[in-house]
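For the sake of clarity, the format in which proteins appear in this thesis is described at this point. Each number in the token line that follows is a code from a learned vocabulary of backbone shapes. One such record is shown here in full, so that the layout can be seen directly:
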Amino acid sequence: MSGPLAAVQKKGGPSWDTVPDLLTHQKRTELKFFAQHEHDVVLGMLERRIDGDPRKASTLRRAAQTVLDRTVEPNHLHSVLVRLGQRFGQTLLVTTNFDRLLSIAARRERYSDSAFALGEIPNPSRNTEFAGILPIHGMLPLKSQRGSALILTDQDFGDAYLRRHIVTSFLYDAARIFHLVLVGYSANDSPVRYLLNAIAADERHFNDLKPRYAFVGCAAGDDRTAIEWQSRGIPPIPYDRANSTPPH
């Protein structure tokens, strides 16, 4: 289905329901969710269509890990985040990325680089020992260091956020102790949608949740993007995407 995928991504190209290729109803539905940027739903549909019941060693998960393994070098933004994430001489960063690039950057900057994912993530605490690079959606293995399962599909999100509360319990506690600042997300990204819904639901019952913020890259004259974040209850920190300069 690479032809239709390329077509709907092309500027001025056809919409998902007018792509001329002969697609089954199943594939056209997958194309619809892809065009809507609901990638977790697409991955879930693909896994169920190709492999039947989801399992760790599915074709989709093997393919996803092969693609994710291609990114091996951190950039200057990883180093900046590591410096911003210092707390009492230790690194404290929460990420939805699967890669180990923050750990690699931390090691090169001579900061602590310990990483914990999923069931190994420590409970949030004001204690100075609460630290680590925390990939809440799972992490890839790195050389001799083992990785964890990855939260990829809509079913994975439902299991981690709703059934087992792995991520939501962590977020509830963290939002009471820390001011959370989101970096590098769109308001419509699937992880952000789940994150914000999880915390906002708790806000109706407890008054001790700290405000959440988001760095938001905007083009010149774009007032809508910041308002979109504000409407979700997240005060935006806008900056000019062209030169990465935040406002004073």
Remarks:
- The two ends are 47 Å apart (CA to CA).
- The chain has ten helices and six strands.
- Residues 179 and 210 are 5 Å apart (CA to CA).
